[in-house]
Amino acid sequence: MHCFFISIFLINVAYVLCALSGFYVDDGVGQTVIERLMTNDDQQVIEHEILDLLGLSKRPRKRHSHSSMSKSAPQFLLNVYDKLSAEANNAHTRHVRSTEDKIIFTEADDRAIDQSDIIMTFLNENHHVSEVRHEKGRRLWFDLSKVDENMQIILAELRLYQLNQKNKYKKSNESMSLAVYSIMNIDGEKDLIKISETDISTNRDGWIEINVTSVVELWKMQKISNNGFYIGAYYKSRPGTEIFC
């Protein structure tokens, strides 16, 4: 039985699709020259191949995102590769949290990486989910259809990026609660089941890691039940009032 470590990210998307102008070849004297310009059909074929490789059904709409967010999923896998390479060479590296460079590994990550045969990352996708009773939070959906039900999941983490928005909050360092729910279909209606609640402050930048192994296990076995996550934020001083996030 293969063991999985799954890390899923709230980001707009990591763009690897770029303006491709033509096909290039080696001219035999150490230089690369253009062989012919690409047609629109050529570009569409290559674009579809890249999207298929990334597991995306269509090219995502471009949105402004924090530079750390736009590269988070591929950066995570690159960090895993660096970690394993360093260990293979008996090197010891010290991980430092950085919002612009490498994503830190938690102790749970280290254990899961050591025990896993396969590591997968997923990006938040646009997916229709019918209304739930809340309106101010964020709905997230990840396509987990490629996770085989016979695979054992060692750890599944949801990684959320918090960006310090100084002008958004009345107080610069107010305490908040960040709640993560799974959107469940109960008696024909959408309902929220709380997975985790974390205390945060409004003046921080960085990644928040949340263990969602149990709900991902459920979605692995019952793929039709994957209605995604709901993220809600609340001031600690006013726990009954949800704010926009």
Automatic annotation (TrEMBL):
GO molecular function: cytokine activity; growth factor activity
Name of the protein: Protein 60A
Taxonomic placement: Eukaryota, Metazoa, Ecdysozoa, Arthropoda, Hexapoda
Family of the protein in this entry: Belongs to the TGF-beta family.
Segment forming the signal sequence: 1-18
Pfam families: TGFb_propeptide (PF00688)
Principal subcellular localisation of the protein: secreted
Single GO cellular component term: extracellular space
Record's keyword annotation contains Glycoprotein: yes
Domain spans labelled TGF-beta propeptide: 28-243
Keywords: Disulfide bond, Glycoprotein, Growth factor, Secreted, Signal
Stored InterPro entries: TGF-b_propeptide (IPR001111), TGF-beta-rel (IPR015615)
Subcellular location per the Swiss-Prot or TrEMBL entry: Secreted
Protein's UniProt keywords contain Nuclease: no
